[in-house]
Amino acid sequence: MVRVEQLSEDEWEVLRDIRLRALWQSPQAFGASLARDQRFQESHWRMRLRSSHWFVARTASEAAPVGLVCMITEPGSPVDDRHVVSLWVDPGYRSQGIGGALLRRVADEAVGTGATTLSLWVVDDNDAACALYTGFGFVPTGASQPHPRDPARSEVRFECALQGH
Known about the structure:
Blueprint: E1 2-6, H1 12-25, H2 34-38, H3 42-51, E2 53-59, E3 62-72, E4 81-89, H4 98-112, E5 117-123, H5 127-136, E6 139-146, E7 154-161
Parallel strand pairs: 4-5
Antiparallel strand pairs: 1-2, 2-3, 3-4, 5-7, 6-7
Helix pairs in contact: 1-3
C-alpha cells in the first residue's frame, strides 16, 4: 500500500532529507546537484514548499518517504499547464507502482488547479522514466534541450492531457 501526501511548509526537513537522498542516489537524473542543495538553509526549503506543490510517497512498512515529486507552474507556459519536476523513487522501491501513484496525485492536484495538461523534461537515456511516463499517457513533444549539468546529454519534453486521469 502506498500513501501519497502533500508536504506543508512545516515539513521542510522531510523535503530536505528526501531531496538530498535523491540527489545522492540518482545524481544523473537531476539538473540540480547535491553540493548545491546541501548548502540550502531552512528558509530556502520553506520557500520551496510555499511556491510549489511537493508530494512524498510512503509505504505501510517504511516510515521515511520512498518517493518524491513536485508540481510547478512553469514560467512562460500556458496557464492551463502544470509541470512535473523532481520525480524520484528510492531504487529499492522501484517497479512497485510508486512512481505511478505520485503521478496520479500530481494529476489530481493539477486538475484541481484548473490545468488540462501536465508537462515534464526527462533525460532521453533514462529508459525506466520514459516507460513510466509513456505508460501514464505522456507523449514526447519533439522538443529537446541539453541537460543542465551535462550538455552532452539531452532532455526531451513530454506532455500528458489530463482528461481521464
